[in-house]
TrEMBL record, chain A:
Transmembrane segments: none
InterPro entries given in the database record: Bact_solute-bd_prot1, SBP, TAT_signal
Name of this chain's protein: Carbohydrate ABC transporter substrate-binding protein
Superkingdom of this protein's organism: Bacteria
Keyword tRNA processing: no
Pfam families per the UniProt record, alphabetical: SBP_bac_1 (PF01547)
Signal peptide coordinates: 1-31
CC annotations in GO: periplasmic space
UniProtKB keywords: Cell membrane, Lipoprotein, Membrane, Palmitate, Signal
Family the entry assigns: Belongs to the bacterial solute-binding protein 1 family.
Keyword Membrane belongs to the record: yes
Entry's localization field: Periplasm
Automatic annotation (TrEMBL), chain B:
One Gene Ontology CC term in the entry: plasma membrane
Domain (ABC transmembrane type-1) ranges: 69-256
Gene3D superfamilies: MetI-like
Family named by the database record: Belongs to the binding-protein-dependent transport system permease family.
Protein name: ABC transporter permease subunit
Source species of the chain: Teichococcus wenyumeiae
Pfam hit, one: BPD_transp_1
Alphabetized UniProt keyword annotations: Cell membrane, Membrane, Transmembrane, Transmembrane helix, Transport
Compartments where found: Cell membrane
SUPFAM superfamilies in alphabetical order: MetI-like
From TrEMBL, chain C:
Stated name of the protein: ABC transporter permease subunit
GO cellular component: plasma membrane
Transmembrane segments: 58-81, 93-116, 146-170, 210-229, 249-273
ABC transmembrane type-1 domain segment(s): 59-270
Family: Belongs to the binding-protein-dependent transport system permease family.
Keyword Isomerase recorded: no
Subcellular location: Cell membrane
């Protein structure tokens, strides 16, 4: 046994050396620049424009890091739990920042807001930035929404008498049906893949348009009719839809002629071939034209290593000129009042017009992103996708599915005690599933 | 069958299998170098016409790709070292000794391989932050080593098992200690296999995505970095990213191919 | 067998400590999580897992892939190993080419096969040029589940056969030529030599390869996600969905524990079925 000693000794020495080396390495993780953690502008090209164009003129050197929405909370909380946050500035949607407020990971920004002079931030959005409390927890950063885009080749197939800017879901189905009849192809598309934003279509567009609500009316007879109708419409939908993440690609490749998606995820098609496409508002149902504006905000992490720098960056990003720069670079719209310059590129112009028409439509019905679901937002989304899979893809009877999923929704609402949000009627206490 | 026929058949088989490996990579390369238009092009070309470096160039110019590559290399190298330091002795113990607890140890090793280890990254995050290992290549390497050590141990155990103990015993007769006997007799025989095990370790760390994503923010490994940007990027960018992930592995395996090849050499000895 | 003494314990000690801290502790935490809800013992997570829409599909899909892929891979890898034994010229290049997929992550492999199998991909181009289809065809949708499964199996076969191949090759190099030569002297055909001599001698390597490969196949998911999107749930992808998407760590932990239980069962089956004497003399 003695003879084995040299081996063991050298082994132990090597291991010790390795560990020492690692220990010397660890402090390399020091904060030398402001870390800006964002769930927005994740797509590589947007992130790149953020870094090289928008942040190029920033007053403080910034490391822009993107994170998947569900991981944002995990990330920030883990950093906070250890008492050594790495990220200072946090950029996310209203619904993503809300749970962080619940766990007290966001620092109050009233002072920062006070220093933001000579810009007019949309007051409704500012109010939402208090996240239901008395202190400002995020400052609006930029906004976006979902619209529809169609290839001009699809226009001749519009049903007689239909106005593309005031479509109904029935007309959309007829339109896609006409196209299938004439071309033999299913050319309507939805972003229902794993990275697609399809749940927002159900939560902010389909449900409000057909039932006037989301939670309250989840399993109402209206909802049952809606799902039956949507299942009929799905006959004209490209079956690849359950793989699509961004509709700009199938639009550009011609796999799809009509598509619904987030503006930023359609922009590539619109700006590269503005002459080939038209953008238009989402369709309307019996209860109105449901649509969902999305606001992203900026927060500073509690105990942030670079809080002062982060405040400077907020000031920079909300300057009207920077907001316009943001619009041009990444197609997110300003949240402060700006002179809309005329030199917008044609694709951006198309999108902006569609959004404006949607907002100005007489039957416009604004829906909010789910509020107050904390960490359960993902499960809430899943609920709609599960319902969709069961009713539409597997052909299960809507009534039974809705009753079953309604129980799951009740559980989520009961656990989180979330109150109703628009367009559901207000509730005292947790939002009831009627 | 005449030998000529047999040789012909053999070479056909070899050629088919080579094509089976290479053609898909070639097609991905066409996608990566085809520029934006390749995605919507129909029918797709099979020949490299109209190549452009735009996508790949744009990709490599992205902030952080190079830094992420360096982090990946660090983490993978450390993971490899850890796997060997811990796996070779353990593999030797399993192969050469019958000892109480060997069974439970084997079970521990197998359990490690049987568990989606990346999920463990979450409970580990907080302790890593406290230890200052969060967001460091070493922290990532530690978790990857949890995956790689059992690999290395199992492969080494089966290697050592395959080396007749008589060889080693003969070395002791000629005055070698257990250690020098191991060093001079067993190790050279097992080296190609150990090289293969360390390649596993390196590549495993290079390719692992989820633990690396959870345990880092700024010092992302390349794969984790690409995952965060690729999953929501246009297809042509995804192709370029995929190719960039593949190229280093191909090169790395090319560099160690002689080691891999040596495995064959011993059999012919 | 050697006198054991303290040496084996010293040899395994570092790895035991290492795995204890970095694996067993968080593992126990995860297992506790799977059986608890709101701080009390509960099977709630398991009910939610089993009730879920994708659970059955995930189980079926995972097992279909594993049961089809692993035997195919072993056969293919054995074939490759045997072929390489008869190759003299250009061996190291062939070895290199065949080992390339070893270094390819399932993320990258998913992208490779997406490029090929997508509607306007190269497979359809080939079929189009052969006159078999008239235009882009969708293969990877919920309407073509068998083609989707086949696509994932082909992709998995492409990516992960190399690992089996290398392990088997490492085993083959240790086989003494004498046995086969003796068999040849006694007039055994090549086929008999392979079945009666080489294959039994390869058992330890085969066992290692099978265990590693099966366990890894149960963990496959980036590929399924890249090719199948929402249409091809597997157990691990569901675990990650619950963990990251739905933020329900309890259900994710249940999935993780389930995957582990299945993998351990598979491993035990191999260990028993391919029992190798502790010190097989090769």
């Amino acid at each position: 046994m003695k003879k084995a000693a040299p081996f063991r000794r050298s082994f132990a020495a090597a291991l010790a050396g390795l560990l020492l080396g690692a220990a010397a390495w660890a402090p390399a993780a020091r904060a030398e620049e402001l870390v800006f953690l964002s769930t927005q502008l994740r797509p590589i090209e947007s992130a790149q424009k953020m870094r090289t164009q928008i942040l190029a003129g920033a007053p403080v050197p910034t490391n822009f890091v993107t994170e998947q929405p569900p991981q944002l909370g995990v990330h920030v909380r883990a950093e906070a739990q250890a008492g050594k946050p790495v990220s200072s500035l946090i950029g996310g949607l209203h619904g993503e920042l809300l749970p962080l407020a619940g766990t007290r990971n966001l620092a109050p920004l009233d002072d920062v807001l006070g220093s933001l002079t000579n810009r007019q931030i949309n007051p409704a959005m500012l109010e939402a930035g208090k996240l239901g409390g008395s202190q400002q927890l995020y400052i609006p950063w930029m906004q976006a929404t979902y619209i529809m885009v169609a290839n001009k080749q699809a226009l001749p197939f519009l049903p007689a008498g239909a106005d593309i800017n005031a479509l109904t879901y029935e007309q959309l189905a007829q339109w896609a049906g006409n196209i299938q009849e004439k071309t033999g192809k299913r050319l309507l598309g939805f972003p229902a893949g794993p990275t697609g934003l399809m749940p927002r279509f159900f939560e902010g567009y389909l449900y409000p348009s057909f039932t006037g609500g989301v939670v309250r009316s989840f399993r109402s007879p209206d909802a049952e009719r809606m799902w039956t109708q949507f299942r009929d419409l799905w006959k004209f939908v490209n079956p690849n839809s359950t793989n699509y993440g961004f509709m700009q690609e199938p639009l550009l490749s011609g796999d799809v002629w009509i598509a619904f998606d987030h503006v930023a995820r359609l922009m590539d098609a619109l700006s590269r071939k503005p002459d080939d496409f038209v953008a238009f508002p989402a369709p309307a149902g019996p209860k109105g034209r449901g649509w969902m504006p999305v606001v992203a905000g900026l927060s500073i992490a509690n105990g942030a290593p670079a809080a002062a720098e982060a405040a400077k960056l907020i000031e920079y990003l909300t300057r009207p000129a920077v907001q316009i720069e943001t619009l041009k670079a990444v197609a997110f719209f300003p949240v402060v009042q700006v002179e809309m310059s005329v030199d917008l590129d044609p694709g951006l112009r198309l999108a902006a017009d569609a959004v404006a028409k949607m907002g100005a439509a007489p039957d416009s019905l604004v829906s909010a992103l789910p509020i107050g679901l904390d960490q359960r937002g993902g499960e809430f989304d899943k609920l709609f996708m599960d319902t969709f899979q069961r009713v539409v893809l597997r052909g299960e009877p809507p009534r039974a599915v809705l009753d079953r999923q309604g129980e799951a929704m009740k559980r989520i609402i009961a656990d989180t005690k979330a109150a109703c949000w628009a367009p559901d009627a207000r509730s005292d206490g947790p939002c009831p599933v009627e | 069958m005449t030998p000529v026929w047999r040789r012909g058949l053999l070479w056909c088989g070899v050629a088919v299998l080579c094509a089976w490996t290479l053609v898909p990579i070639y097609l991905l390369a066409l996608g990566a170098f085809g520029g934006r238009e390749i995605v919507s092009q129909w029918p797709k070309p099979f020949l490299p016409l109209g190549l452009s470096l735009d996508t790949v160039g744009a990709f490599l110019a992205i902030d952080g790709v190079w830094r992420a590559t360096w982090v990946s290399v660090q983490a993978a190298a450390m993971c490899m070292v850890l796997a060997l330091l811990l796996g070779v002795p353990a593999g030797y113990a399993l192969a050469r000794f019958r000892f109480a607890g060997a069974g439970s140890y084997r079970l521990l090793i197998l359990m490690t391989r049987a568990f989606p280890v990346a999920i463990l990254a979450l409970p580990l995050t907080v302790s890593f932050i406290n230890l200052g290992l969060y967001d460091t290549p070493f922290g990532v390497a530690l978790l990857h080593a949890v995956l790689a050590v059992p690999f290395a141990t199992l492969v080494c155990a089966s290697l050592f098992q395959g080396i007749p103990a008589e060889l080693e015993e003969a070395a002791w007769v000629f005055g070698c200690s257990r250690f020098t006997g191991f060093l001079r007799v067993v190790l050279p025989l097992a080296l190609p296999g150990i090289a293969a095990a360390s390649i596993f370790a390196f590549v495993l760390s290079w390719n692992e995505v989820f633990a690396a994503s959870v345990l880092t923010v700024r010092h992302r490994t390349l794969t984790a970095y690409l995952l965060s940007v690729l999953s929501e990027s246009p297809l042509h960018v995804q192709f370029a990213g995929g190719l960039i992930l593949i190229v280093p592995s191909v090169l790395f395996i090319f560099l160690v191919r002689r080691r891999l090849f040596a495995m064959w050499g011993i059999g012919n000895r | 067998m050697r006198r054991a003494g303290a040496l084996p314990y010293l040899l395994i000690l570092p790895s035991v400590l290492f795995l204890g801290v970095l694996f067993v502790v968080p593992l126990v935490q995860t297992a506790l999580l799977a059986f608890q809800e709101g701080g009390t013992w509960s099977l709630g997570n398991w009910h939610r897992m089993a009730d879920d829409l994708n659970f059955q599909d995930a189980v079926v899909n995972t097992f279909s892939v594993v049961l089809i892929v692993v035997p195919l891979q072993c056969t293919l890898a054995l074939g490759m190993t045997m072929m390489l034994r008869h190759v003299q010229r250009g061996r190291d290049i062939i070895l290199w080419v065949w080992s390339i997929p070893l270094g390819i992550s399932d993320l990258a492999a998913g992208l490779v096969w997406l490029a090929i199998l997508t509607d306007q991909g190269w497979l359809n181009t080939l079929l189009f040029k052969l006159g078999l289809i008239s235009g882009p065809q969708a293969w990877l949708t919920y309407e073509t589940p068998m083609v989707l499964l086949a696509g994932i199996i082909v992709a998995e076969l492409w990516r992960a056969t190399a690992i089996v191949f290398v392990i088997l090759l490492a085993g083959v190099q240790l086989l003494p030529k004498e046995y086969e030569e003796a068999a040849e002297v006694f007039g055994a055909s090549p086929w008999q030599r392979f079945w009666r001599v080489t294959l039994p001698l390869l058992r330890p390597s085969l066992q290692t390869a099978l265990i590693l490969r099966t366990v890894l196949a149960f963990e496959m998911f980036a590929m399924a996600l890249a090719l199948g999107g929402r249409n091809f749930p597997v157990l691990v992808s569901e675990a990650f969905n619950w963990q990251y998407g739905n933020q329900d760590y309890g259900v994710a932990a249940s999935y993780a524990v389930l995957v582990m239980a299945i993998s351990i069962a598979a491993t035990l089956i191999y260990l028993v079925a391919l029992r190798v004497p502790a010190e097989q003399r090769a």
